[in-house]
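**Fold in tokens:**
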Amino acid sequence: MLPGAKTMGIVGVAALIANLVCAALLWRHRSGDANRQSVWICSRNDAIGNVAAVAAAFGVFGTGTGWPDIAVAAIFAGLGVSGGWQIIRKARVELAQSAPNRKRTPPLIVRPSSGPQASTVHAPSGARRGSSGGS
């Protein structure tokens, strides 16, 4: 069954208005830290996606096929991947700048102890605090 062009258009316009309001409220945070930039990028992408959804509604109505809707789905996927990469890059830069000389501690490892559901947290071997390495 083809997506209904009228329904796509109405929902697309309503969502576009909501996302434009959110994007306007978040505009000043677009160059903030990774968390704020993430919210901005997601809101911006949602608004762009809504414009594409309205365009797809016209395309579905005009062509009588679902292909415009499929094209918009590809645009949504591309926006999601692009936004994700932008956020990851920003977060990595922030992590690198937050503590450039910080000594990294090894991660804690959860290993099962007695019983199938029981678990305890252990530091990796040779990295326990207070350990002198072989005494």
Remarks:
- The beta strands are 109-112, 119-122.
- Residues 131-135 have pLDDT under 50 and may be disordered.
